[in-house]
């Protein structure tokens, strides 16, 4: 998956997290909220790894 694809997915999953948080009255410890947060964390980590590979390193 490319950076644009991951960014779009991050946004969708972030919105899902927001909806779940509202649904469970801000209970960040609710199992479904935690699960969605873990999904979002994994995508953010994937984006970071992909982004790091695409940054050009200095020659010197």
TrEMBL record:
<dbReference type="InterPro" id="IPR018540">
    <property type="entry name" value="Spo0E-like"/>
</dbReference>
<protein>
    <submittedName>
        <fullName>Spo0E family sporulation regulatory protein-aspartic acid phosphatase</fullName>
    </submittedName>
</protein>
<dbReference type="InterPro" id="IPR037208">
    <property type="entry name" value="Spo0E-like_sf"/>
</dbReference>
<dbReference type="GO" id="GO:0043937">
    <property type="term" value="P:regulation of sporulation"/>
</dbReference>
<dbReference type="InterPro" id="IPR036638">
    <property type="entry name" value="HLH_DNA-bd_sf"/>
</dbReference>
<dbReference type="Pfam" id="PF09388">
    <property type="entry name" value="SpoOE-like"/>
</dbReference>
<dbReference type="GO" id="GO:0046983">
    <property type="term" value="F:protein dimerization activity"/>
</dbReference>
């Amino acid at each position: 998956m490319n950076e644009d694809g991951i960014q779009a997915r991050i946004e969708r999953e972030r919105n899902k997290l927001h909806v779940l948080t509202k649904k469970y009255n801000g209970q960040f410890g609710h199992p479904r909220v935690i699960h969605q947060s873990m999904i979002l964390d994994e995508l953010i980590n994937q984006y970071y790894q992909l982004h790091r590979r695409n940054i050009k390193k200095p020659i010197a």
